[in-house]
Amino acid sequence: MPFRRGGFALTPPSLVIFVISLVLALVALLVRYAHVSVPIISAAHVFDVLALAYVILTVGVLFRGI
Fold this sequence. Notes:
- By secondary structure, the chain is mostly helical.
- It has one domain (3-62).
- Helices cover 55% and strands 9% of the residues.
- A two-stranded antiparallel ribbon has the order 1-2.
- Helix 1 (15-33) runs antiparallel to helix 2 (46-62).
- It starts with a strand and ends with a helix.
- The model has no long low-confidence stretch (mean pLDDT 90).
- The chain crosses the membrane at residues 12-34, 40-63.
- Keywords: Membrane, Transmembrane, Transmembrane helix.
């Protein structure tokens, strides 16, 4: 059931969207704090990956069926 606030409905994200954003956030945190080496994500781009994870989760909440 969508939650209505401010004229638009907020819905829970699908499991796939939630897992994608969770994995991106965990990888970014591991690179930053555990110094895990990930070839795609350098230490300079950790904030970008965290922001991307948040944007993906936000899109999953704002748009129904995603």
